[in-house]
Amino acid sequence: MSYSLSLYLVDLDKVRGAIGSQDDKLRRMIGGRFKAQIAHSDDWFSSEIESGAPTRYDAVRAVINGGPYDEQYGFQYGYAYQMICEFYGRHLFNNHFSPFRGDWLETVDEGLRTLGIKVAVTDFMYGSVPSSLPRPEHLPCYGEWAPEECAQALAQWEATTPEQRAALDPEVLEAIESCIEWTREAQARPGTGVAGFGF
């Protein structure tokens, strides 16, 4: 079985602030921009919706309104939060993590630790959505790299030597270089961090 990460460069305070904001304009704009995506999601989860799960648009509405939530369908609110991140943010290039198998994230984290870099890609696969939302029983998983974490990771990378980098497995090094590019992009836009969803 393979997994995937979807990553966004985004103002984390802004997306968290959308939860419970009661922002009807935001809700309508998300509904318009992602109309086809919402229809596809409803088709994909049609059996769950028939059993009582909210549609994707109703889940977006609930997240923006701050509830009410049906705790047994936490996955829909997780995906709704992803739509908010996608609305406000920008996709980050992540071909090294979409798809991936087995313990690839742990392998990359080991490489990061070897270089003395204090972020972890497993954050995106083993975390959960903000605590103000129902916790999905399974997927999506969620994690963040705050702006200050991105800044620290970039500085730690720049302190490494060519010899340290060359000692890593080439595929791991390429994946780490991709991670560092995310931190570099975050630094280029002050106040932004990385929001990541694992599936």
From TrEMBL:
This is DUF7691 domain-containing protein. InterPro entries: DUF7691. Residues 1-197 form the DUF7691 domain. Pfam families: DUF7691. It comes from the Bacteria.
